[in-house]
Amino acid sequence: MKEIYIGAGVGGFIFLAIIGFNIVPFALLILAMGGFLYFMKTQGQLSFNNLGKGVKSQHRISFADIGGQDSAINELKEALDFLVKPEIIQHMGIRPLKGILLVGPPGTGKTLLARAAASFTSSAFIAASGSEFIEMYAGVGAKRVRQLFLDARKKAARENSRSAIIFIDELDVLGAKRGNHTSHMEYDQTLNQLLVEMDGITPDEDPRILLVGATNRADLLDPALLRPGRFDRQVQVGLPDREGRRRILSIHTRNKPISSEEVLDEIARATFGFSGAHLESLANEAAILAMRESSSTIDSAHFTEAIDKVLLGEKADRQPTRQEIERVAYHEGGHALISETVDPGSVASLTIIPRGGALGFMRKSPPDDQYLFTRPQLEKQIMITLAGAISEELVYGDRSTGARNDFNQAWQTAREIVQSGLSSLGVVSIDDVPADMLYNECRTIIDKMETATHQLLSERLPYLERIATALLEEESMDQRRFQSLLN
Ligand code: ATP
């Protein structure tokens, strides 16, 4: 039909030209319109097929190829159950997951996890990055989202898969809170289209679609994306600890002649704060250095030299120095020791691996939901918060800037004591308490807690030493390991 119209149009033009009609302006107009339509069509139809090709055609990634992410892998596998055992899920009437969000710093293996999930579930895999959806032309991003889902369904049909996994990296570019962008209409339309497509996923659909998103900043995402029924499962993908780094190094040196296995232990110890991507690059650089020296094996010196090379290429992402790491170990050890002293069994895990903006972290056991606190409970919280800085002082004779957030938190808790009528000021309305009176009362509470924490910690210095030494060696520890250290 299209050909008949085109033929008739061209015939008509020739006829008009023969009878002496000036067809040039019309021809130019039609050419311009055709060009514009073609441009819009190609902009909207970026095909995502090529991006996802990797899984079938190249080496399929399995969970065994990913090191240092055991808990992320376990959580992910659990969430994938509905693709692996659809009959049971249907029988139990469970609403299948539509979206899983992988949250973590760059290069920690989020893309690898998504690809391994596709292999694990025998799903078609298609990948895109949030930035690919953002164009200056209104409506193009939304069209690409539709195209992405369409491509995923087609790919699953082509590969005879009963399910498809769509991986969207940098989800925050596409899914940031609505109304925040300067050209927000286009961003909002794109995000709306993603929400519409997610809502369109049904449990009995063939192929079943699962979205896996990756981001470094889950806090930037629009709440609509995170609500139940959309990306309602979050999996943390953190930097690997020493054991994890050892595993990643052995994965990336599988095809390389290493002088001895001990070299990898040594390098894992020396690469605190490295991501999987750093370690992959490190193994590669070490092999290049060995080749340049015409050495038949890669040894410790090659790796050590490669560490500097990898770090120099990463100026923006500064690694903490050894002194800083040690200070963090005492700081976090102090928090944990006081937490255990005032509230036995309250330390869930402890790490000196940088996470988010923090250089270390102590996680308390999830308490039962608690909405009401007594003064002793709030005082204990203040002691735990102050214990980091006080440990530093006891060990080094001074404090560091690392306790800034702790102090803010301690002060807020003291304020809460006053505000709730639990201080020596008795019942007050905080708006009517003069600023200096409020300050003095908070000061008194904090000073008292500081003295008490100082006292407790100085009586337990050998324990602090033991925790910090173990932390420096192991980098992270769970509740069991922590308690065995104290016993
Ligand atoms: P980004 O957030 O920057 O997209 P990412 O978290 O998705 O990064 P990947 O693309 O999965 O990171 O990893 C990049 C490369 O780093 C991988 O191809 C792999 O070689 C290596 N790598 C990263 N993490 C791991 C890991 N846990 N185990 C083995 N290799 C890893």
SSE diagram, text form:
Blueprint: H1 2-18, H2 24-44, H3 54-57, H4 70-84, H5 86-91, E1 99-103, H6 110-120, E2 124-129, H7 140-158, E3 163-169, H8 171-175, H9 184-199, E4 208-215, H10 223-226, E5 231-236, H11 242-252, H12 261-270, H13 276-292, H14 300-312, H15 322-342, E6 347-351, E7 361-364, H16 375-396, H17 404-419, H18 435-459, H19 461-474, E8 476-478, H20 479-486
Bound molecules: adenosine-5'-triphosphate.
What characteristics describe this protein?
487 residues; alpha/beta; Rossmann fold; Helicase, Ruva Protein, domain 3; 4 domains; five-stranded parallel sheet; three-stranded antiparallel sheet; 20 helices; 9% strand; globular; binds adenosine-5'-triphosphate
Characterization of the model:
The protein has helices at residues 2-18, 24-44, 54-57, 70-84, 86-91, 110-120, 140-158, 171-175, 184-199, 223-226, 242-252, 261-270, 276-292, 300-312, 322-342, 375-396, 404-419, 435-459, 461-474, 479-486, and strands at residues 99-103, 124-129, 163-169, 208-215, 231-236, 347-351, 361-364, 476-478. The protein folds into 4 domains: 2-44; 54-236, 3-Layer(aba) Sandwich (Rossmann fold), CATH 3.40.50; 242-312, Helicase, Ruva Protein, domain 3; 322-486, Peptidase M41 (Methane Monooxygenase Hydroxylase, Chain G, domain 1, Up-down Bundle), CATH 1.20.58. Mean pLDDT is 85; it is low at 49-58. It has a 5-stranded parallel sheet with strand order 2-3-4-1-5, sandwiched between helices. 38% of the residues are buried. It is globular and about 105 Å long. By secondary structure, the chain is α/β, with parallel strands linked by helices. The chain contains 20 helices and 8 strands. The site of adenosine-5'-triphosphate has 18 residues, from helix 6, helix 11 and helix 13.
